[in-house]
Amino acid sequence: GVGRWLRRSIVATLFLLTLATLITHERYVLRADDPMWRHLAPFRWWLLPHVAGGMIAFLAAPFQFSATFRRRWPAAHRWIGRTYMVAVIISSILSIYIVLAFELQANWWVMGTMGALWLLTTLFAWLAIRNGNVTQHRLWIGRSFGLTFTFVLTHPDIRIPEDTQEFAINMSNARRWETPVKRYIDECVAGKDGAR
Fold first, then answer.
1. For labelling alongside 13, which of 6, 102, 126, 185 has CA 20 to 30 A away?
2. Cα–Cα distance for residue pair 140/147, rounded to 1 Å
3. Residue 148: closest CA among 80, 53, 77
4. Is the four-CA dihedral 82, 83, 84, 90 of positive or negative sign?
5. What's the rounded Cα separation, in Å, for the pair 102 and 40?
6. Per-residue DSSP letter, 111
7. Contact in structure between 61 and 105 (CB atoms under 8 Å)
8. pLDDT per residue of the chain (196 residues) written in tens, 0 to 9
9. The pTM is what?
10. Residue 45 buriedness (CB in 10 A; 0-12 / 13-18 / 19+)
C-alpha cells in the first residue's frame, strides 16, 4: 500500500543523499594526491578499524529499524543488533582516541563529544533492552543511529571560503545586537558601496 511505498521512498532517498554526501565530501579517499591524506597519515592505522566499525554500524542499522525484519527474523535482528553494538563501541572509542591524540585541541569538544555521545547512546540502548524496556531501547538506538549518520555527514576539513560574494544571517534579533555587530552587518549589506 501507500505506507510501504512511502517507507521505501524515504529509505531510497536517504540512501541517495548519503551516497551524494560521500561522493561530495569523501572523494579524497579515491585520490592519493589529495592533501587530506597528509592530515590522516599519522593515525591511518587507527582510522582503519574506526571506519570499518562505522561502516558496519551504518550498514547494519537500517535492518534494525524494519518492523517486518524484526517480526520475521527476531534472531537475526538480535545478532545484527549485537554486531551494531560491538562495531559502535570499537569505532566510538577509537574516535575519541583519535581526536584526543591527533586532532587540534579546537576539535576536541565537537568531535570528542560526538564520539562520547555515540558510545553512551549505544550503551544506554543495550542496557534498556537488557532490562526488557523496548520503548527506551528504541529511543536510545534511534539516537545512536542518528550519531552514526552524523559521522557520515561531517567532514574533518570543512573550510569557509576566505572571499565570497554572499553572506547569510538571521536578522530576527538585530535589535539586540551590540553596536559593533550592527555596524559590521550594515557594512556587509552595503556591499561594494560599504566600508568592507
1. 126
2. 11
3. 53
4. positive
5. 9
6. I
7. no
8. 777 788 788 778 877 877 776 666 666 666 667 777 777 778 878 888 888 888 888 888 878 888 888 889 999 999 999 999 999 999 999 989 988 888 877 777 878 888 899 999 999 999 999 999 999 999 999 899 888 877 666 655 555 566 666 667 777 777 778 888 888 888 877 877 777 6
9. 0.66
10. exposed
Burial profile 152-177: b = 16 or more Cβ within 10 angstroms, e = fewer:
beeeeeeeeeeeeeeeeeeeeeeeee
Q: Which three cell numbers stand for residue 99?
A: 581526536
DSSP sequence for 104-159: -GGGIIIIIHHHHHHHHHHHHHHHHHHTT-HHHHHHHHHHHHHHHHHHHH--TT--
Q: From residue 170, how far is each of 93, 110, 174 by CA, in Å?
A: 37, 23, 8
Cβ atoms within 10 Å of 109's Cβ, excluding its own: 10
Give me 45's grid cell. 592505522
